[in-house]
Description:
Blueprint: E1 3-8, E2 14-18, E3 23-27, E4 34-35, E5 46-51, E6 54-59, E7 67-68, E8 71-72, E9 79-80, E10 85-89, E11 92-97, H1 101-107, H2 114-130, E12 136-139, E13 148-150, E14 157-161, E15 168-169, E16 180-185, E17 188-193, E18 200-202, E19 205-207, E20 209-212, E21 217-220, E22 223-228, H3 235-241, H4 262-273, H5 287-294, H6 298-302, H7 312-315, H8 318-343
Parallel strand pairs: 3-4, 14-15
Antiparallel strand pairs: 1-2, 1-11, 3-5, 5-6, 6-9, 7-8, 7-10, 10-11, 12-13, 12-22, 14-16, 16-17, 17-20, 18-19, 18-21, 21-22
Amino acid sequence: MPKLIIGERGKNTERVHQCLEEMVSIGRVDENIIALPSKGVSRQHAQILCANENYFLVDMESGNGTLLNGAKIRPNEKHLLRNNDLISIDNFDLRFYMTDEALESSYNEEATDSDILEVKLLKKVIRALDKETVPSLEVLNGAAEGKKMYFSDDMGEMVIGRDPAADFPINEFVISRKHAKISKRWGGIVIRDLESKNGTFINNRRIVEEFLHDGDRIALGTIVFMFRNPQEINLSQLSEKIPPKRTPARIKPQEMPATEEEAPQEEVLTEEEAPQEEEAPQEEESPLEAWGEAEPAPRQAAYPLHIPRQKLLNKLTPVEIGMIGLGGLVLIFAFITVVNLIFE
């Protein structure tokens, strides 16, 4: 329940007012819910309003003004109140708290400096959010099933054992007093067995010292732990999900299809192998003439030098043909008009 702790500077006495009303009036006269007997306080100095579970501070056009966390607020304007806000009216300080007594006692903080308290509260919130991103160790069986330990950045090492003074105490007879130690090393997080009686296992394999990875199951005797590291990316699992790149199939040279240039050579070979074509008159021909006759000409047929032009009408679309016809009619009408003007 929200409340106000009211104190006067120079005096050690304080009083507490629980904000149960929808409107808490503050002023010099006794008709106000919170009376501040001082000449520097107006008769109706300020109000605290409740709306939709939010609380607002309003200055009622007081003579000396109202300060919120050291800054003077404008009259008749609502200013949202937050936990540990300080309201100053003349010589009086009113500390506003949103939390109840039980939650305040858990903080174990003394309300002395608002800036220090805000920083500490912010650190607690950030620490709670960081738990979802830091490595952790969770017990999966035994009497401590569900117990979890976070390996924060300010923790250099963590000892697991049956000893109550251990960083992660597990009261199981199969675990040694100091069973294993988890520490940060260059390149990752390492677990080391501290010469335990029942040994330390990672994924059913006994180890002495080894790097930990996200998803590893650690067994200390018969007690199993699950190691989680959200900051680590398991590249081996990602590579299994990524399909392999397509590569051309490997075939033997004799299985490759023949090209156009190879076809005439095969025909020449078959002709040379034929005994009927080996005649004496061919030996009298000059080498230049023989080379000219043997030269294949498929390249000229495949890549002709002269490409016939297509007709203009075949390239035009129906819309373009219509536009050309319309232009021709306009020219004809213009010519007739000019001729008529000349003869007149």
